[in-house]
């Protein structure tokens, strides 16, 4: 049976076991009429016990020290809220924690905007995900809760994304979602339900201090699978958030996860990994941008000569380095600059020439897991993403601090 909870302030009484019907309230999204939201009591959403001694999950050898370590088996039984999506990764994470003897409750976060995109699809986009999540939970008798976070996601993630595109920047929705929703609004929603940790199927590893070291930091580390590693998408988490997290897949690779899924006979073992932006489903991002910002014709200019090459729909449809969708002859052409004030997009055919290589990058909005951050000229390692070949690597780097607390440093 599915139960529904929400982080909306008006739904706080749900955590005490009452059932209520919400009145409509205004949304930031225009043109939409808010339908009343009926929430079913979540009084049973307190941590539920999976059989504490059950470690047999389909004949898989749980004697692997890595599985024991990342599933925190030595500290069982913990009360763990496990985020599930219906995919293979989160399902294997749930099964590992359950097999380790923890008391697990699964949570599915619903952030779809059906009303916004009802003309784009004919079926419920999250129905299959939820069915798979329910089937995985049913096999081990773990309760599944559905948490509606559409409003929170819009207010704290999507609105920010739209504003960034209007400003000519290309944000990463996954970084915001992890910080503000999965381990932000959701953590708030369950803070009084007695869970020790929140777990998910991310490929990352968190090393927590010993129980005696109350001042020690929790450290985010790379996962064993360096290709699938997702520490970048978790890079803006605070210490308060990190201290509450478990990532059971941080000690194994994607191939091992697939093998475990087959050995566990998971109903979703053959599902493909999800692609694209989570809240849009089958909707193309360009369609979403067009709906939210609109179109405005501008000119395409060659960066080196200033020659007129054609027109475009609006600078917010393009990102630096983009090649596809320009529809210009004599290419390949790449977007190299955007004129936000006059709606001009500059393109070049020499984007990857040797003289365009850069060894210096100016970055901001950094989140240092240590209190003070690095010192000037400190040797670090920088993770680089290569979208062209679909991989990533770390390379030595030197940091030069230009501003600290808003004050120039050099």
TrEMBL record:
Keyword Disulfide bond: yes
Domain of life: Eukaryota
One of the protein's GO biological processes: tRNA processing
SUPFAM superfamilies according to UniProt: Adenine nucleotide alpha hydrolases-like
A GO term, aspect molecular function: tRNA-5-taurinomethyluridine 2-sulfurtransferase
Record's catalysed reaction(s): 5-taurinomethyluridine(34) in tRNA + S-sulfanyl-L-cysteinyl-[protein] + AH2 + ATP = 5-taurinomethyl-2-thiouridine(34) in tRNA + L-cysteinyl-[protein] + A + AMP + diphosphate + H(+)
InterPro entries listed in its UniProt record: MnmA-like, MnmA-like_central, MnmA-like_central_sf, Rossmann-like_a/b/a_fold, tRNA_2-thiouridylase_MnmA
Domain annotation tRNA-specific 2-thiouridylase MnmA-like central: ranges: 287-349
UniProt keywords, alphabetically: ATP-binding, Disulfide bond, Nucleotide-binding, RNA-binding, Transferase, tRNA processing, tRNA-binding
EC number: 2.8.1.14
Pfam family, one: tRNA_Me_trans
Family under the similarity heading: Belongs to the MnmA/TRMU family.
Stated role: Catalyzes the 2-thiolation of uridine at the wobble position (U34) of mitochondrial tRNA(Lys), tRNA(Glu) and tRNA(Gln). Required for the formation of 5-taurinomethyl-2-thiouridine (tm5s2U) of mitochondrial tRNA(Lys), tRNA(Glu), and tRNA(Gln) at the wobble position. ATP is required to activate the C2 atom of the wobble base.
Official protein name in the record: tRNA-5-taurinomethyluridine 2-sulfurtransferase
Organism: Oryza sativa subsp. japonica
Lineage summary: Eukaryota, Viridiplantae, Streptophyta, Embryophyta, Tracheophyta
């Amino acid at each position: 049976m599915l139960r529904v909870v929400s982080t909306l302030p008006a739904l706080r009484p749900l955590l005490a076991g009452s059932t209520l019907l919400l009145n409509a309230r205004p949304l930031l999204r225009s043109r939409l009429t808010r339908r009343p939201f009926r929430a079913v009591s979540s009084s049973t959403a307190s941590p539920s016990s999976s059989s504490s001694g059950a470690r047999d999950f389909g004949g898989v050898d749980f004697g692997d020290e890595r599985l024991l370590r990342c599933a925190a088996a030595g500290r069982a039984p913990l009360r763990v809220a496990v985020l599930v999506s219906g995919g293979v990764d989160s399902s294997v994470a749930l099964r590992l924690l359950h097999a380790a003897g923890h008391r697990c409750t699964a949570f599915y976060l619903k952030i779809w905007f059906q009303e916004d995109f009802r003309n784009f699809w004919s079926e419920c986009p999250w129905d299959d995900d939820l069915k798979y999540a329910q089937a995985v939970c049913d096999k081990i008798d773990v309760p599944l809760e559905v948490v509606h976070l559409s409003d929170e996601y819009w207010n704290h993630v999507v609105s920010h994304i739209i504003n960034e595109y209007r400003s000519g920047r290309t944000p990463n929705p996954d970084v915001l979602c992890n910080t503000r929703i999965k381990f932000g609004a959701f953590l708030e929603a369950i803070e009084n339900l007695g869970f020790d940790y929140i777990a998910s199927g991310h490929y990352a590893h968190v090393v927590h201090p010993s129980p005696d070291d109350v001042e020690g930091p929790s450290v985010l580390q790379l996962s064993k699978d360096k290709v699938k590693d997702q520490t970048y998408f978790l890079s803006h988490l605070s210490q308060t958030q990190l201290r509450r997290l478990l990532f059971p897949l941080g000690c194994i690779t994607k191939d091992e996860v697939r093998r475990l899924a087959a050995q566990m006979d998971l109903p979703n073992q053959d599902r493909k990994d999800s692609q694209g932006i989570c809240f849009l489903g089958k909707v193309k991002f360009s369609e979403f941008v067009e709906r939210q910002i609109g179109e405005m014709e501008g000119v395409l200019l060659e960066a080196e000569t200033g020659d007129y090459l054609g027109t475009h729909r609006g600078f917010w449809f393009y990102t630096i380095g983009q090649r596809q969708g320009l529809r210009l002859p004599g290419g390949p052409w790449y977007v190299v600059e955007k004129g936000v004030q006059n709606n001009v997009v500059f393109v070049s055919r020499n984007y990857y020439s040797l003289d365009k290589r850069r060894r210096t990058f100016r970055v901001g909005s950094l989140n240092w897991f240590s209190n003070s951050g690095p010192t000037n000229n400190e040797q670090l390692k920088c993770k680089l993403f290569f979208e062209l070949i679909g991989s990533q690597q770390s390379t030595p780097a030197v940091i030069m601090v230009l501003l600290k607390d808003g004050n120039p440093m050099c």
